User: Fold this.
Amino acid sequence: MVGAPIVVGLYARRLPHVRRFGTLLAAAGAGWFLASLSASQDDLVHSIGRVSGWIVEVFLVYLVLAFPSGSLGRVDRALVGGMALVIALLYLPTAVLVEQYPTPSPWTSCGADCPGNAFMLTSAEPAVVDDVLRPLRELLTVAIFVAATVRLGRRIGPASHVMRRTLAPVLSVAIFRLAAMAIGTVSRAVAPNSSFTEVVAWLIALALPALACAFLIGLIRWRLFM
Assistant:
């Protein structure tokens, strides 16, 4: 989850036309390293990792929409900005309100035995978190990923032959992760401790290195065609 984006990013930096994207992808890999701290059994380190796992979702939307040039159009910037707002307004504030972060998560396999939240400032978790904030933010997150995937798909239609071959692998993995996120959101709400929900969480996690490989395949196709 960390090594694959960094390696592909360093490869992309060798190509003049996609050097900016390579820098962004390598930087995202470093951000995902912070998210991987969620696997720690220390309360503080685990909490840093879980909060970082929220923030890097913005990087993910950015990368999917910016591939391969590294630049965003006006609609793309609106989607990335929307994701950043959802994280800032509906995810980050709950870091000081909850006793434990939602499980299962793509960033940790601790399940019911996860460490507590080191950032909690309240004496008890407000009911509004589970009743309002969590369902709303998960719905908006899936909606933004749907929009980003549709946006990527619409770019493929009028694109040149080489650009279609470059974008197709990324679109395939984006659709896979989107479907896994939607299923995982429903499954975690209905049966958070089921083995099915845990499997879906692992699929979402594996979609990150898969996306890095999709970027690599797209870049190799583009380079060979050129």
